[in-house]
## 1
Amino acid sequence: MSTGSSIELVFPDGSLRTFPQGTTGAQVAASISEGLGRTALGAVINGRQVELQRPIAESGTIKIVRWDDDEGKTMFWHSSAHLLAEALEALYGQVKFGIGPPIENGFYYDVDFGGHKLSDADLPAIEAKMLELAKNNSVFNWYLVPKADALAYFEAKGDHLKLDLLQGLQDGDISFVRHGNFTDLCRGGHVPHTGHIKAIKLMSVAGAYWRGDEKNQMLTRIYGVSFPKKALLDEHLLRLEEAKKRDHRKLGKELGLFMFSQKVGQGLPIWLPKGAALRERLERFMRQAQKEIGYLQVITPHIALKELYVTSGHYEKYGADSFRAIDTPSEGESFFLKPMNCPHHCEIYKGSPRSYRDLPLRLAEFGTVYRYEQSGELHGLTRVRGFTQDDAHVFCRPDQVKEEFKKVIDLIFKVFSALGFTDFEAQVSLRDQEDRSKYIGTEENWAKAEQAIIEAAQEKGLHTVTAYNEAAFYGPKLDFMVRDAIGRKWQLGTIQVDYNLPERFELEYVGNDNERHRPVMIHRAPFGSLERFIAVLIEHTAGEFPLWLTPEQAIVLPISDRFLDYAEKVLNQLNKCDIRASIDARGEKIGKKIRDAELNKVPYMLIIGEKEVEAGAVSVRKHRQGDVGSMSIGRFSDLIAEEINIKI
RNA sequence: GCCGAUGUAGCUCAGGGGUAGAGCGCUUCCUUGGUAAGGAAGAGGUCAUGGGUUCAAUUCCCAUCAUUGGCUCCA
């Protein structure tokens, strides 16, 4: 409660202190410690980010934020976007500004250059201008103006974008922020002055539709990132380099896993022998895991009549975005490439009468599906036009939904842990809260499905986040996001509850009351798609796959060609022990062979020479670790078997 | 689909109006070497494709295709 002359502020640690009315965030920070006073970038008061120099108007919660706080970075990058705008105006004059928000790793500004075309080559000059302007230590002044004045200001400036933004704002006072020679419409939350921005890197230029709507004008978006210290920028750029080294497109090529062919078509991955073998091992692993918990494997064709997808609702929803229909020469039939496996599985369900005793019926298929994706969206293996889902559909009674859902969660846990994804979170994807026209099915069924997901996730103790407008058009989802070895988030597995398809396909079972009932369907794919999963696995492991998956587990390195015969014998024995291996028979020195094997990320190198031949042994060297000593092949194969068992 | 960039040897890339270069890889020869690069020689490219400008285009211009960073979309 604030009195006339003082305010009370609650700090993040729960402590409460009283300050005179009109105290600024900066004064509060300085009162805590000299260090905080120096490093503070902003304040979060009652959940709102505000500048340190603003007097605090009312009592409430306060958090002084620094660079290390997320809010600190947000304010820092937001301020940097203003600085970018100032630089652009200084360099190019008549520039219209859209929005310039902070993002996960930096900031961007959407601008309209009129006729001028900006390219990457212009970025260094803009960067230099920003750094130059930053040195002015221009204070970010936040102030209120009447809406009429705000309109007049941007009217005079001819900035139709800001005017458009203003239309959407409530009448009354509008907040502006001014620093140096630049004034912008802005909600607020800036660092004290531009001098804090010490290192800037403008990353790229891209097109972006105004307000994200493709019917609107396309603006030029400039992406950038900035830091309070040069060293932090260098570190950031190093991280990007590291990510680049792990890029699955690069590693996939280097390791001979997959390729694309212009003649085959964009977005259609081709699996090379090593990649295909890796993929098969993943499939085998999944088949086994599913078999253990009662899934039945099925196989369905790659095309189906249009009517199937009319029934399922996919035609109405995605017909226009599908590959063109395949028409038969004389019968006038119209087929579509399979974009989903579920309609086929529904037909399997329908193929014979079902009793409540048959449920749950769990049909699994590594189903290859084809979807027309816009050309600009294709990306390596993560976004393709033809891919294989580790798909399955659980048909069950309404009373079994939650239990079945939980079993699927367990399966996903098992898969993730076997593959080393220990850090993940689950996202409950629900409908758009306003626009429900995008979805099919009754309100009642949606409510039931959403409830089942939320409860199952809770009972499994999952840490979940809720995302609206992320549901599939026929039902809500539980999506699993894993965090990879360098901290990036990827969406992998998904589980979806569906009351709608059973309805549309008129699926039934006979209950113990001898009446007909409608089953519920659960769609699920722990990997999501094999393509995408392998892409993520490549980037997560940097191409150093778990031993049980890796295409080449060992390589035999003879010291000279005098030992080639023995090398062949060793290879034979390895094959017998089911160890995937090859021989490096080149006329190179051992150092070179070792180097190449290390670079190729082969887990084990078996070096053989005079000593090994005499002892009937191999000298084992482990990738990244070095020499682990000499042993018999039997011992080596035990070693490998042991390592595989620990990991799965 | 839209905006920007890119496309030269198997890979990574340099070059530049007068029909091309490096490193790695590959082949052959010499070397027979003990835990991250031994030496030499050689093969390999219609400079993405199609037009245009020019005496001459891989180089400049246009279009197409593909890749790529974004936007939109994502069953």
## 2
Amino acid sequence: MPSAKTQPARGMRDFLPVDVRKREYVIGVIKSVYERYGFEPLETPAVENIETLMGKYGEEGNQLIFKILKRGEHEKTGEADLALRYDLTVPLARVVGQYQNELPKFFKRYQIQPVWRADRPARGRFREFYQCDVDVLGSRSMVVEAELIAAASDALVALGFNDFVIRVNHRQVLIGLGDRAGIRHDHIEPALTTIDKLDKIGVEGVEKELSARIGPTSTTKLVDFFRELASLDQAADIASEEASAMKEKALNAAILGRLVEFVGDHEKGSRGVEDLRSIIELSEGTSAARRIRLDPSLARGLSYYTGAIIEINVSDLTGSLGGGGRYDNLVGMFLGKDVPACGFSLGLERIIVVMSEREMFPPELISSPADVMVTIWNEDSIAESIALATELRREGLRVDLYPEADKMGKQFKYASSRGIPFVLILGDDERAHGELAIKNMKSGEQIRLPFELLKTSPQRNVQHADDQTVKSKRNIEALLKWLRNGSKAGEAGDSIKPGA
RNA sequence: GCGGCUAUAGUUCAGUUGGUUAGAACGCCUGACUGUGGAUCAGGAGGUCGUCGGUUCAAGUCCGACUAGCCGCCCCA
């Protein structure tokens, strides 16, 4: 039989148990932080009607949407009527349009689900990937921005990150900058994507590219502005090497000052600058305070942003760990009436890439399929092993039962290879004495404990007499105690988690 | 979508100017060990050299296309 290709489709991945454990761990941490901020869970279908998605992400986005051909007789035409969702924000806007009257005045939701983009795969970039979104609908207050930034920051801190930078900018400020520099309106978009590359290609690179796109006069004005910002940064570096918190604060203040100067009385632009000022002030008491960094060169590709835009970066990742912003007009595209909204999305895959490379995952996460493994001595003792496993499971332990009456060596080797810290043996000798042998796989220590349960038949075990229950309980307790103490002695046992 | 690099055992990699039967380490399996993993020793299995085509008496080696991966560009979580 010819073997079919076993790789998953390009840009898609299988998740083996270790991978799933990592993912569930990260998702669990993020979820609990989000809930701590009062966000509620939402889920939406993988597939949306194609017109729901088209035209929401800009030119580039449209091309990256995975489209689903019409079924049946229309199949040949190549026409698509459905598509896989490209992000979680547009589906949210649709949901708000649909259930407006059933949702609270301020709808705070989180959503952790996969999205699909027909992008070219790269490090930390896949065609199917999870986003961890939080959004607040119904308020124009900058308190929302501050809360979202704080939540994302808390989540990353809870995962063990300490070196991320939260870059913040504002679409209206960008428009103000463009107008003041005299850029034609249809040139603003390309100018922004060029400016966004500032940290990558440097001022000279930007100057060159801008000049080609928008002409020399506007370019000079803009580039001079960003040159000045860069010199502010350097000055701050020299001024306060030690107190980085102070540096950030001073630098943000200086950038705000320059923005006010440059934008002047430009209506949209100056309002945007005030928004930025509010966000920084409101974030003062949060975990994000000393990580926020105003960055007038931040643009972000998605076309639906209208106000603040936010991105979180770490130095060892080219892309971002997450991003978001305000999109006050998106819901209006579904509802006919604008609902203010702002959201942020953490990229699960990128978080995992960085955490894996930095070895930030708790060690017991990597391999701890079970707390203890019960061996099977021979065909005749299978029932006793099952009874023992059952009893321990009832106590909340994660118990692996070796499925075959293999040689002991094989069973031990198996337990060892899976990193299971304790192995239980019910051999002829143990059973003859009503005992049970426990081996600590880390230390090699092995002891025996009396075990009344073994004297009862498996059938009766389910509903054994009261005194036997008591004895059995006592023995289980002794066993659990040993497992726990053993776990303190050997490092392996950190993964022992008796039922809570 | 564009440019560069890479593809040999489960894994990491050797493999000479093209030349018989493609190697190592680690891992895996079996045994020494008829009640015990990790250590040691002995043995064993495992490769259509990414795929297809071309050059040649002869291709893992040279050429082309395709596929997958890595790095840049573009874009993004």
